[in-house]
Amino acid sequence: MRTSTLATLALSAATASASLTAVTVKGNAFFAGSNRFYIRGVDYQPGGSSDVADPIADEAGCTRDIAEFKKLGINTVRVYTVDNTANHDACMNALADAGIYLVLDVNTPKYSLNRADPNPSYNAVYLQSLFATVDSFANYTNTLAFFSGNEVINDPASSAAAPYVKAVTRDLRQYIRTRGYRTIPVGYSAADVSENRLEMAEYMNCGTSDERSDFFAFNDYSWCDPSSFTQSGWDQKVKNFTGYGIPLFLSEYGCNTNTRTFEEVKSLYSTDMTGVYSGGLVYEYSQEDSNYGLVEINGNSVTELADFTALQSQFSGTANPTGDGNYNSTGGASGCPAYSSPNWLVMNDSLPAIPDGATKYMSSGAGTGPGLTGDGSQNAGGASTGTASAGSGSATATSSGGSSTSTHKSAAMAMTAPEWSFAPMICGAVVIMSTFFGATLL
């Protein structure tokens, strides 16, 4: 293992991240400058969900693991939980020095939507935490994207919570633009629910430009070795998403039902798929209870498992397509899916208005976040009380400074006063039923 320390890397912190070109969206693809960018990465949360910790604030852990990332040949890591009060300079600059980007989930176990009853959990305290996380990571050029949620919709019944997922996505995009940050893509990581997979993708890409996601991703474990492009059904997913107007990628993949040889890598980065998909993230880096790990971590030592070697071999033997990979350069919005019980329970195209107490953050900034030890937000009060007019999430000002302390015109001035609507209450009543279908708190 390479033993260079983050203290040494931090000496060049002022220039390390600046040397890594920020990723942007063009049509249905990501680009780093003029070059098509394919996500080749792993999901990275040592300790798993049972040990809520911030790996990007762990300098020793970053030093240990970045050496392994480089051996794998990856360019992206996904992190599910961070502490928005911690300093992340050393690790983020070390990742940039290694050519590695970050895709970040902005929710934490205490600050997240409740799929069973989303309206109370969509409140100003919740959004303040999310916005503070954006502030913590927006100025690193290797922050590739933010996830507004992960698997909030995990069955047909919970689809009624989709307007709240989309509202959070809208709010994050507005916050980024109004605070004058560069345009950092915001999207959603969906569960691979066959009954409403396509509807969820269409929904996150329909409506006015302020309401639409910058990308869509889903967790896909349908390719279980030995398999193939057609046997796994990936050919049908490519067919169904052909013409989709924003980038699409796999936020988790790597079925472990059988021995993993990662044959799907060859398909994912071939022209069979690159006209529609922009790569993906293998689940997961460290060995946890679910037995998906590529490595076993024991203190400062790392043991590479058989899955590590198999994935390393597939990555090294699979080049990206030459040229632009046949991407859809024009992009475009999808049509909003119609209500269809029992699989798609979104009544109409209206979204909840941003809670009144959260509009101030657009102009003043989020301030200090609650970190991982805050009181939580799900029952904090101050929830949305109506629906928003289309276009109300547009940014009111931009600047080139990108500082969370910049002063901007109040976003509240651009927010249309919400007309009273029973839609959020109806939605909440419907999704309460999801508790009987095994819904859990996210």
Automatic annotation (TrEMBL):
Keywords: Glycoprotein, GPI-anchor, Lipoprotein, Membrane, Signal, Transferase. It is a lipid-anchor; GPI-anchor. The gene is GAS5. Residues 365-407 are annotated as: Disordered. Residues 1-18 form the signal peptide. It is found in: Cell membrane. Belongs to the glycosyl hydrolase 72 family. Splits internally a 1,3-beta-glucan molecule and transfers the newly generated reducing end (the donor) to the non-reducing end of another 1,3-beta-glucan molecule (the acceptor) forming a 1,3-beta linkage, resulting in the elongation of 1,3-beta-glucan chains in the cell wall. It comes from Exophiala sideris. The keyword Nucleotide-binding does not apply. Its EC number is 2.4.1.-. It holds the Pfam family Glyco_hydro_72. Residues 375-407 have a biased composition (Low complexity). Its main location: membrane. This is 1,3-beta-glucanosyltransferase.
